[in-house]
């Protein structure tokens, strides 16, 4: 199949060295046509139903794009809850996320080629005219080089690619004269100063007007960038060079890739997440296929497909082998350390890795693609969307979901590869969930918390660039698209670049091919991949047979740790002590602790503190075990602290014209009705007088039987609650008095009581930041009668909600004073190590200052109950529960093989080497904890 159809890395079963575009026709047999006959498994989907779903995607796109154009354009993005444009500088900063916004009508540019794929040629023509008329690429704004490249440069090039295709067809775009390409070239030149480093790796940010170093630039002091940021340029830059003949772009992108390749960890062949752009040192040495690295791998394979340069394929294959050896633990993909690849670096996965099955299809490695995709789908079925991060036992780690398209992308490629209608059903579920949970009157809103169903006022441009393309193409037949999608390659932002570029202006590749690859060694060279034409037609149940053993992998999962389960089954050795199994009263456990160099200190207040002295461990392997035990204990403690906090709540506007479509993230209260235990409270809202609710209300008749709105400040939350309760309110919403505050930018907190008994407060109380609160206040101004639902999780919002009965109110009241807040997402305090050979775990439940705590995390393990998870069983991947493993043996063997300085077999690794490794691990762990996608 073609590039765009997926599976272009896998070609014929005959070794193939020609540039990909030349083999596009033969490559097409790599994948089975989506219309192939299906004999069993998921029921086939009729053409009629596929068309219906395709039309639904078109309608959804119109809703998203139409609202952007009507309410946000020329702003970069639509804010779908407040129904206005997001203009950088006019909204509270969201940090790095805002670096995608360059005041260049981002969503319009990112949507250009989607319009053509969705057959909206007329709208495309209008959109291109608007871009040419309105977009300024010379704004004094600091933007991310990576985001600007993939979304804006990619968007302009995708638009240009399809504009010239349409022009050639002779009906549309007859006036077009490469204007988008000229803009792309202008933007390309604006990005080039970012590459002014000795390494050739680009700075992460650039000022569109002033470049990097000028005093006005306000950037250029950064030292680090992410691997994906430096390694995701070649497709756009090479296309720009080849379209224009200006070779410099491709040269710069190649140089950055060459540098990354040189810096790969030589024994594992993995790359870290962030790298110093001046020294080339790895800053973060953890390695996975998700955030921070993802599209680096994607671009190596696709650069081979687009440019026909063998060196990219060899690099990809080398990395891919390493990924499959260390990171892939089917169906999971777990981060490891680049220098200790057998040691997992995390117990959770991020949502960005959902693109990987699609890339595996392109590579032709279908089995693990099916497995990982199936696991991800089960997580989605559990939470409606893929949470931004989830644990190895499939609990939510980071609850937001910004409508990312990666899973839809992989679904599309898997369907193209297998023809299995199961993937059409998956796509149908994605459509249903988007309409049911993310659709709001003014577009589609990102999920703030997949557990509560609450929204964020955000609709990222990639939602239009990617999601609708992949969903539409999933259900489309060849004749539904006005051009041959198989003649194009998808960039990481799903922009389309024509495969014929491989034979245009190709002098650059010849000039710059590194000498290392002038003579190719075929022996270790994966030129081909499994031919799905042979695999599937003979066994139409192939994909289903791979999914079957995994069908309950998420539901039946038991908590698992960071050790490889499958490997543990193979090894008969006694498993090392896991943090979650530890009991301070078990003499055997204490003995193991001692062997690992971990001592237990009994504090006066009855708590225990764990301290590890690596030099006191019985062996280097025991020291490693001790380190892992301590790491696990830190994670466990952090997890427990999270679990002890009250989760956020939801305020859902249910009256006309919202009908439950707008869900606001609200902070809970530590007093009053517990919404997680009781039925939700529903009622019309009314502002209290005085608005701060700090004294007896003067308008009890207005709030009686209603949910009172009160402004934050001037007295305790509990006092406000009592005052509105006394006036007969059935609930209260405290709205932040800090203008412009939002849960998008500030951590949500829970409202604490007043230090006295608050049992008298019976009504539910929730907190909204000012921006969310103003959505309700605006609604009152516009519609007068506004009804809301206070709950722990948004209720399904079908139109019937309109007709539902209003539930009865909740109880009555009393009074008190002084406002207290408790962070709702407090992290465990990790503090610097005091000395290299000692780390400790203190059992204080509260966060401590670095001065109070020796050098690790606080845990709430007490002697009486030091095993908070003692009844948990562990599980194998098919859901059968069993004990976890021992990877130690294998780990030591591997390290012995790969590191000549370490003689693990003899258990005499020099202590300074253990300590150095250990320090690295602790640092990496701390960084990962702090890191955000
Ligand atoms: C997109 O902008 C691109 O796909 C990028 O490579 C990473 N992911 C986002 C969408 O999630």
Explain how this protein is built:
The protein is an alpha+beta fold. Helices cover 37% and strands 12% of the residues. 56% of the residues are buried. The chain binds 1-deoxymannojirimycin. 1-deoxymannojirimycin (DMJ) binds at residues 150, 295, 352, 404-406, 462, 492-493.
Please name the defining characteristics of this protein.
single chain, 933 residues, alpha+beta, four-stranded mixed sheet, 27 helices, 12% strand, disordered N terminus, binds 1-deoxymannojirimycin
How is this fold's topology laid out?
Blueprint: H1 24-27, H2 47-72, E1 77-79, E2 84-86, H3 106-117, H4 121-134, E3 142-144, H5 145-169, H6 179-191, E4 205-207, E5 224-226, H7 227-231, H8 234-244, H9 248-263, E6 274-276, E7 282-284, E8 286-287, H10 294-307, H11 310-327, E9 328-329, E10 332-333, E11 336-337, E12 348-350, H12 356-363, H13 366-383, E13 389-391, E14 396-398, H14 406-418, H15 422-438, E15 439-440, E16 443-444, E17 447-449, E18 454-455, H16 461-475, E19 488-490, E20 496-498, H17 507-512, H18 532-538, H19 542-547, H20 565-570, H21 587-595, E21 598-602, E22 608-613, H22 620-644, E23 649-653, E24 662-666, E25 681-687, H23 700-703, E26 707-711, H24 717-726, E27 731-735, E28 749-752, E29 765-768, H25 770-783, E30 787-791, E31 820-823, E32 838-842, E33 857-858, H26 888-898, H27 911-930
Parallel strand pairs: 25-26, 26-27, 27-29, 32-33
Antiparallel strand pairs: 1-2, 3-4, 5-6, 6-7, 8-11, 9-10, 12-13, 13-14, 15-16, 17-18, 19-20, 21-22, 22-32, 23-24, 23-30, 25-30, 28-31
Helix pairs in contact: 2-15, 2-16, 3-4, 3-5, 3-16, 5-6, 5-8, 6-8, 8-9, 10-11, 12-13, 12-14, 13-14, 14-15, 14-16, 22-27
The structure holds 1-deoxymannojirimycin.
1-deoxymannojirimycin (DMJ) binds next to loops.
């Amino acid at each position: 199949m073609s590039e765009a159809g997926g599976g272009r890395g896998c070609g014929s079963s005959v070794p193939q060295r020609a540039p990909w575009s030349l083999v596009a026709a033969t490559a097409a047999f790599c994948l089975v046509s989506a219309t192939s006959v299906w004999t069993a498994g998921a029921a086939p989907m009729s053409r009629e139903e596929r068309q219906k779903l395709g039309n639904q995607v078109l309608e959804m796109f119109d809703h998203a794009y139409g609202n952007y154009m009507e309410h946000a354009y020329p702003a970069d993005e639509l804010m779908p809850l407040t129904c206005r444009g997001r203009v950088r500088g006019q909204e509270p900063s969201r940090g790095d996320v805002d670096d995608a916004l360059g005041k260049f009508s981002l969503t319009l540019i990112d949507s250009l080629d989607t319009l053509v794929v969705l057959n909206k040629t007329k709208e495309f023509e209008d959109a291109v005219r608007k871009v040419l008329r309105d977009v300024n690429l010379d704004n004094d704004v600091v933007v991310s080089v990576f985001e600007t490249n993939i979304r804006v440069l990619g968007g302009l090039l995708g638009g240009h690619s399809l504009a010239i295709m349409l022009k050639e067809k002779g009906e549309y775009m007859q006036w077009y004269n490469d204007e988008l390409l000229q803009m792309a070239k202008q933007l390309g030149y604006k990005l080039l100063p970012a590459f002014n480093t000795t390494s050739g790796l680009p700075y992460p940010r650039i000022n569109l007007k002033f470049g990097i170093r000028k005093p006005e630039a306000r950037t250029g002091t950064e030292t680090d960038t992410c691997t994906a940021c430096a390694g995701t340029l070649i497709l756009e830059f090479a296309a720009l060079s080849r379209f224009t003949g200006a070779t410099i772009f491709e040269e710069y992108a190649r140089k950055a890739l060459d540098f990354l390749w040189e810096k790969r960890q030589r024994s594992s062949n993995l790359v870290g997440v962030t790298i110093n752009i001046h020294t080339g040192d790895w800053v973060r040495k953890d390695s996975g296929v998700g955030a921070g690295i993802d599209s680096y791998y994607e671009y190596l394979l696709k650069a081979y497909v687009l440019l026909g340069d063998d060196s990219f394929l060899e690099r990809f294959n080398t990395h891919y082998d390493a990924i499959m050896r260390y990171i892939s633990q089917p169906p999971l993909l777990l981060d490891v350390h680049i220098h200790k690849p057998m040691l997992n670096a995390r117990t959770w996965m991020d949502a960005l890795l959902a693109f990987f099955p699609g890339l595996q299809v392109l590579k032709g490695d279908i089995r693990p693609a099916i497995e990982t995709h199936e696991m991800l789908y089960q997580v989605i079925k559990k939470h409606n969307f893929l949470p931004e991060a989830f644990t190895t036992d499939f609990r939510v780690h980071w609850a937001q979901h910004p409508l990312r398209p990666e899973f839809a992308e992989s679904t599309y490629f898997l369907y193209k590869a297998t023809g299995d209608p199961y993937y059409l059903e998956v796509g149908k579920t994605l459509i249903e969930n988007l309409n049911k949970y993310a659709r709001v009157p003014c577009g589609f809103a990102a999920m703030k918390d997949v557990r509560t169903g609450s929204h964020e006022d955000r609709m990222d441009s990639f939602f239009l660039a990617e999601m609708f393309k992949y969903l539409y193409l999933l259900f489309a037949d060849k004749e539904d698209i006005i051009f041959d999608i198989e003649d194009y390659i998808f960039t990481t932002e799903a922009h389309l670049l024509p495969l014929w570029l491989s034979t245009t202006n190709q002098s650059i590749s010849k000039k710059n091919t590194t000498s290392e690859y002038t003579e190719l060694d075929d022996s270790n060279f994966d030129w081909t991949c499994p031919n799905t034409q042979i695999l599937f037609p003979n066994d139409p149940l192939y994909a289903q047979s791979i999914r079957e053993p995994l069908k309950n992998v998420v539901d039946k999962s038991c908590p698992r740790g960071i050790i490889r389960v499958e490997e543990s089954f193979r090894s008969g050795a006694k498993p090392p002590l896991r943090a979650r199994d530890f009991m301070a009263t078990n003499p055997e456990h204490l003995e193991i602790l001692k062997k690992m160099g971990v001592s237990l200190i009994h504090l006066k207040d009855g708590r225990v503190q764990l301290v590890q002295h690596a030099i006191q461990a019985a062996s280097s392997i025991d020291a490693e075990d001790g380190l892992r035990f301590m790491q696990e204990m830190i994670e466990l403690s952090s997890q427990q602290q999270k679990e002890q906090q009250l989760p956020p709540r939801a305020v859902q506007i249910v009256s006309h014209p919202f009908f439950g479509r707008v869900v606001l993230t609200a902070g809970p209260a530590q007093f009053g009705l517990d919404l997680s235990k009781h039925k939700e409270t529903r009622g019309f809202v009314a502002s209290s007088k005085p608005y701060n609710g700090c004294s007896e209300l003067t308008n009890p008749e207005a709030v009686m039987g209603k949910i009172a709105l009160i402004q934050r400040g001037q007295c305790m939350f509990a006092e406000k609650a009592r005052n509105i309760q006394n006036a007969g309110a059935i609930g209260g919403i405290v709205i932040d008095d800090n203008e412009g505050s939002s849960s998008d930018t500030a951590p949500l907190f829970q409202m604490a009581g007043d230090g006295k008994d608050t049992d008298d407060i019976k009504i539910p109380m929730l907190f909204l930041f000012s921006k969310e609160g103003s959505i309700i206040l605006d609604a009152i101004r516009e519609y007068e009668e506004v009804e809301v639902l206070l709950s722990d999780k948004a209720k399904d919002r079908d139109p019937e909600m309109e007709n539902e009965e209003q539930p009865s109110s909740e109880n009555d009241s009393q009074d008190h004073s002084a406002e207290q807040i408790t962070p709702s997402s407090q992290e465990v305090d990790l503090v610097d190590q005091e000395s290299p050979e000692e780390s400790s775990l203190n059992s204080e439940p509260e966060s401590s200052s670095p001065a109070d705590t020796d050098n690790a995390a606080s845990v709430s393990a007490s002697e009486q109950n030091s095993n908070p998870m003692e009844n948990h069983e562990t599980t194998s991947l098919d859901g059968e529960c069993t004990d976890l493993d021992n990877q130690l043996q294998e780990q030591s063997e591997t390290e012995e093989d790969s590191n000549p300085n370490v003689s693990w077999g003899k258990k005499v690794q020099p202590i300074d080497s253990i300590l150095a490794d250990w320090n690295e691990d602790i640092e990496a762990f701390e960084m990962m904890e702090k890191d955000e996608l």
